[in-house]
Predict the structure.
Amino acid sequence: MSQPTWTPAPKPGLIPLRPLGFGTILGKSFSALRHNPRVLFGFAVVVQLVVMIVVLAVVGAVAFATLSRLRTVQTGSEEWTTLYLGSMAFIAGAGLLMGLFSVAFTAIVQGIVAADVRAAVLRESSTLGALWARVRPAAWRLIGYTLLYGVAAALAVLLILGVPLLAIGLPTGFDGAGIAFTVIAVVLGILGLVVLAIWIGTKLMLVPSLLVLEGAGVREAIVRSWRLTRGRFWFAFGIVFLIGLIMYVGTQSVSMIGSLITSLFGPVFSPTGMTEGSLAVGMIVGLVITEILVVILQSISSVVQSTAGALVYIDCRMRYEGLDQDLLATTERRAAGLDDGSDPFRIDPARAVRAGFRPPRAVPYPLPPGPVPGYPVPAGYAPQGYAPQGYALQGYTAPQGYTAPQGYTAPAHAAPPAAAVPGSVPAPPPAPAAPIPPAQQSPWARPSQDEGWAAPGSDRR
């Protein structure tokens, strides 16, 4: 059996293996794109482009097929009205199905990002095939959860818009007062819905990471995300809000620049004069370029937001379940060639957050029991414990009945002895130190026998 040899410390991965701060998560959410741009950025952009093309093609084909039928019917007739309503229903249905299609692919992107963050933390292979192998078992759960979340949001919007119309608008006949009260109720409902969506969205932002990294079910992931974000709500919301604000400003800036570029394409295609055809071609080309840039920024935003959610998940587990210790142990075993194949992200039932969990409150770090050498003692600071007789600190009184060791003398920089505690027995004075016999004294400390000798030419006589 070979003896264990020295191995270097494992190199850090994407993040330091300790609880993360606000700036660390914010910075690493963007730097993850540099860590694996071919998979993250390329995959997200391709998915967004494919989804956009498919949605536009399907909805456009349905709209063209249904609305073209209206040309064969006289405008304003009963048949025209029936065909028009049916066309709108078909177009709305196609848009809803394509919206669900888009949501499903967005869920897959979130799962790929969560798997890539895990690989980056543990310095594992992060090819698209390896990431998909980890996401594939949870793919349908990811899609199902995302669809469930979208359906719940749609029902909430219909409820907010429908209840005021049915409860206020119809009974009042949509007169002036009825319309005013309906609008007020709708506005207040939308504001309340926005607040509710922010709260629920932040509490459930860890669900994709839980589904992929822990293999949890949808219900279990929702419950665990709700518990893990206790005490970290404003922290997580601040990160998501700041990232969203940055990407929103970037998207709006690109849209404005794209609008300016679009206005310049007309003279390019028709330098001798503007015509309807050249104007249309210039607008189409400018819009296509603008939409491509917007899709790229939306892809970046999707990856960054998903990375932030995965990092918040890791941070919460480090703080509440000791995940950092498991990650350190795993990286050290792998660096030493002793990998046992265990998954550090598995749940330890003894440390997992439970119902009624409350995060521990932060307490100030306790002061040391004595003064730190080289630092002055703060005014009014009384260290716990005691000091020897004759060595008094500011604000310190010697304990009752304490006597200093025999032969001890206080340092030169010590303060005078503190006053005795009332009712205490005074300590006897320390005994003087015994003189050191000449035989035990250092020869360098003895007087030289040649003190009368002087070098030739010196002033001594």
Summary: Confidence is low (pLDDT under 50) at residues 384-390. Residues 276-321 form the longest helix (46 residues).
